[in-house]
Write a structure and sequence with these properties.
The structure is a single chain. With 468 residues, this protein is an alpha/beta fold. It contains 19 helices and 15 strands. The chain is globular. The strands form four sheets. Strands 3-4-14-9-10-13 form a six-stranded mixed β-sheet, with helices on both faces. The chain has a five-stranded parallel β-sheet with strand order 8-5-6-7-15, sandwiched between helices. The protein has a domain of 214 residues: Rossmann fold (3-Layer(aba) Sandwich). The two termini are 40 Å apart.
């Protein structure tokens, strides 16, 4: 299978090149040229498989030009072997026809591990086959950095530098990054905000000599290989609940539209999905787009669910591509307009098509807190401030009570302990395998918000590493 850019102006690529390229050269995002379709019998044949077996079958059509099936099956089994739950992504009943899928049993306690653990292994496989190495540089406001670090640690073909804003990530998040003891992992605490970290990363990428000499690469959420592994858990949930002989709806707490796009992809593969509900916090660009038919950026405000504090949902472009009938030139023009004015009008037909499948629900911080406390009192469950937004969205935007609704739990409550204690009066415990997180030794470099200094540090580290 080949991949094409949403803006129609970049070469069509095979999976391995899409993996290493990330963003397309025309500024677009890569999507499969056609969706692989599963028949009802194909879906039925997934019943009873283990999670890694099912995930391998779902992903295989996307990767088979690059990785042989047996190698891929081992890779996927290995990716999920370290998860803290034998089912990898267990499904729990929350109420009448309401289910919770826990996506937070990976090494950093957030759903990003499910994709990153596969992505790191795919990178290593493709680079080793080509005899190449890359330097991954990334900026993080918390969750992405630790998931990337856990995915890249000890991989021979990868050096990994992660910049985080000094003093502006939670202690759990910082420790999950800085206590990883692997020679190829380098954490930088930058004096500044998340945007300064992102600017420093962009500055490194924009210096072509620096970029080429170190073979810079990224593992950000626009990479197709970040979406692909997420399709599998929607399939796993639906098949458990009776698909293809029964429809299912999903509710997803969303910022960048990556996770919920994977649910859309599952539907494009033929999974019977009735409705997709987007849950947002006060940074509600997606909810407003659904309500008004206009996508309009706002100012980012900090909330209790920081991993959704985003005002440009990059992955939404992949859905727009389909809403624009896959006309890359038309979408490129629309995105250029959006860049200039911060506004993109969908038009009546596209807006209607969007609302046929998607619904949206918004919670502010007070509502988020209230809901965490209420679910705890009612069921004894502690939900993190992101997951609870998905649960509330599922409850408030159910279409048909006969269709089971699955809310995606994206983080473990112990990842955001302060918000959970304040809301529920109970401090969530870290899982046993991480109970010593606060005792582990931290290792990171403190740098000023100065691009030249960051580059000099990266140069020095890489020179030492290649001499070793
Ligand atoms: C990244 C993240 C999200 C948002 O996911 P997107 O796919 O980027 O929309 C939600 N919850 C948690 C805990 C996250 O880490």
């Amino acid at each position: 299978m080949d991949y094409i850019s949403t803006r129609g102006g970049a070469p069509r690529l095979a999976f391995d090149d899409v993996l290493l390229a990330g963003l397309a050269r025309d500024g677009g995002l890569y999507v499969p040229e056609t969706w692989p379709r599963f028949t009802p019998d194909d879906w039925r044949s997934l019943r009873g498989l283990s999670y890694p077996e099912l995930a391998t079958r779902v992903m295989l059509p996307y990767v088979e030009s690059t990785v042989p099936e047996a190698v891929f099956a081992d890779m996927v089994a290995d990716a999920y072997a370290g998860f803290g739950h034998p089912e990898v992504a267990p499904l729990r009943r929350l109420g009448d026809g309401l289910w919770l899928m826990e996506l937070f049993h990976g090494p950093t306690l957030a759903f990003k591990d499910i994709a990153m653990q596969v992505l790191g292994r795919l990178f290593d496989h493709v680079l080793t086959a080509r005899g190449e190495r890359v330097t991954i540089v990334g900026a993080t406001s918390g969750d992405t950095g630790s998931a990337a670090i856990e995915a890249c640690r000890d991989r021979d073909a990868i050096e990994c530098f992660i910049l985080f804003p000094r003093g502006r990530v939670s202690e759990v998040q910082r420790r999950q990054m800085t206590t990883v003891d692997a020679p190829n992992i380098h954490c930088i605490a930058l004096g500044g905000h998340f945007d300064d970290c992102q600017d420093a990363v962009k500055g490194m990428f924009n210096d072509m000599a620096f970029r080429d000499s170190h073979r810079l690469s990224a593992v950000n959420s626009i990479n197709w290989a970040r979406i692909m592994p997420q399709i599998a858990y929607y399939v796993a949930a639906a098949v458990r609940l009776g698909a293809p002989d029964r429809e299912v709806s999903f509710a997803v707490p969303t910022g960048n539209f990556g996770n919920v796009f994977a649910a859309y992809a599952a539907r494009c593969m033929g999974l019977p999905v009735r409705r997709l509900v987007i849950g947002s916090n006060a940074n509600d660009i997606l909810t407003r787009t659904l309500e008004r038919g206009v996508m309009e950026t706002g100012v980012v405000v900090p909330t209790l669910s920081p991993s959704m504090d985003i005002q440009v949902s990059s992955n939404f472009e992949r859905l727009l591509f389909d809403l624009f009938d896959r006309d890359g030139a038309a979408l490129a023009a629309a995105m250029a307009g959006f860049r200039e004015t911060g506004r993109l009008e969908l038009g009546a037909a596209r807006w209607r098509a969007l609302r046929d499948l998607f619904a949206a629900h918004r919670l502010n911080d007070a509502e988020t807190s209230e809901a965490i406390g209420r679910w705890h009192r009612a069921t004894g469950d502690l939900l993190d401030p992101h997951s609870v937004i998905g649960v509330e969205a599922a409850v408030h935007r159910r279409s048909d009570r006969a269709v089971p609704a699955v809310a995606m739990a994206t983080a473990h409550p112990a990842k955001f302990p302060d918000a959970v204690v304040a809301a529920a009066g109970v401090r969530p415990e870290l899982p046993e395998r991480m109970a010593d997180l606060y005792a582990r030794e931290e290792r990171y470099k403190v740098l000023d918000n100065d691009l030249a200094g960051v580059k000099a540090y990266v140069n020095d580290v890489l020179a030492l590493r290649s001499a070793a």
